[in-house]
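TRPV5 protein: C-alpha cells wanted.
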Amino acid sequence: IGNTVLHILVLQPNKTFACHMYNLILSYDRNKEGPGSLELIPNNEGLTPFKLAGVEGNTVMFQYLMQKRKQNLWSFGPLTTVLYDITEIDSWAEDQSFLELIVSTKKREARQILDLTPVKELVSLKWNMYGRPYFCFLALFYILYMACFTMCCVYRPLKPRTGNRTSSRDNTVYVQKMLQESYVAYEDELRLVGELITVIGAVVILVLEIPDILRVGAAKYFGQTILGGPFHIIVITYACMILVTMVMRLTSTTGEVVPMSFALVLGWCNVMYFARGFQMLGPFTIMIQKMIFGDLMRFCWLMAVVILGFASAFYIIFQTENPENLGQFYNYPMSLFTTFELFLTIIDGPANYDVDLPFMYSVVYFAFAIIATLLMLNLLIAMMGDTHWRVAHEQDELWRAQVVATTVMLERKLPRCLWPRSGICGREFGLGDRWYLRIEDRVDPNKHKMMRYTEAFKAQDRDNYDKGSEKLETNGDTLCKKELSALSLSRSTSRTSSHRGWEILRRNT
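Answer:
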C-alpha cells in the first residue's frame, strides 16, 4: 500500500504537497535500505517511483529524490564535491534503462530531465569518453562497407546479349551471367570476397536488430524518431534485399537488379543515421524525418489521386495518336511516370509543334498546371515551412535525446570490456555497493552578493513608485499638476540612486 501511495504522489500536480507526503511515508518505512525498501519496489510496468518521476517528466520530484540521494564529500570555500547516486540512472547494469525510458516517452517534459544534474553530467561523460569515438568508428566502418557493396554491384557478372531484338525500343546489350559463369576469372574471385563481406554484414545487421525489436516492441522501436525508428526500417529492409539478391544469384534467377537497386538506395540513405553524432548535422536529420513521415506522407495521398486522374486522361487523349511523334504517353505505365515528372516540373509539357495536337490536351494540361504546380506544390512548401518552424524550437533538445539513445544503444551492443562502468563504487567511501558520480560544484560568492544588490534596487524602485501612486490617488483635481511634478521629481531621484547602484553592480561584475 505504501509503495502504491508513493507512485500516486509522483503523479500529483501539487509538487510541494507530494514531496512532503513522500517524505512522511518513507519515515514510517521499516526497510529503508535494501531490496525491501518502498522506493525500490516496482509497479506493474516495472517502474520504481524514481523512474516514474522521470517518465512522467516530474522535474520537481526528480530533483527532490536526487537531493535525498546525494552525499557531500568535502567542501572548501566555494568548492564543493558531491557524490550522486546513479544506481537507477546508469544504464550499464539496468535491464529497463532510466535513460532509455526518458528518450522513448512521448512527453516532452521528460526530456528536460536530461539537462538536470547528474543526468547531464553522466550522459556527457559516457558520450565523450566512449560514445563519440565508437560511433565515429562505426560510421567509418559502415561507409567502407557500403563502398565495398557498391563496387560489387558495379562489377556484377554480365555477358553480351546473344538473342535478337523483339522491338524497336529494345536496347538491351548485356544480360546476367549464370552461376557457373560468374566466378571464373581472378577478378571474379575478388568480387566474391566483397560479396561475402556484404552478405555477412547483412546477417550481422539482422542479428543485432531483431533482439531489440523483441525487447522493446515493434510499435515503439519503429515509431519513435529519437530511437531512430525510420532508419531501423531502412537498414532491416536493406539486409533483406541483400539476402534476396544472394538467393537469386545462387539460383541463377534473372532480375537481381531489382533488389540490388533497392539495397543500394536504402544502404546509402542509412548513412544519414550517423549524422546524429554531430551537432551540426543532427538537427537536420530530425527535420527530414519529421517532414518525410509527417507532411510528405499525407501529401503523397493527394498527389497519387491527382496523378492517377490526369495520367488516365492524357493516355486516353493520345491513345489514337502516333507514338513516334509523341512518345511520352505511348502506354499507361509511361503515362503515369510522365505525369509524375510534369507534377514536379521536372520536364515541360510534351508537345510536338510539327504535328497537330488534340484540343482536349490543351484543356487538360491547363487544368493540370493550375492544380499541380500552382496549388499543390505551394501547399507542400507551406506545410514543410510550418513543420520546420515547429521543430526548430526543440531541435537541440531532440538532438540531445538522440545522443542519449545512441549512447544507450552502443552500451548495450558493445562488450563489457570495451565499455567499463561509469562512476565510483560506494565501497571506496564506505557507502555500500551503490555507484556514485563525482561532481564538483563551485559556488561564486559574488553571484549571491550581486543578487542581493539587485533585489535591493528593485525593492527601492518599487517603494518609491508605490509612494508616488498613493500621493496621486489622495490629492484632488486642483493639485494634480503639482503632485505629478513632485512624483516625477521623486522618480528622477530614485532613478538616480538606482543608477548609482547599477553602476556599482556593473563594476563588481
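The first strand starts at residue 71 and ends at 76. The chain has three domains: 5-116+423-446, 125-276, 292-411.

Cheers.
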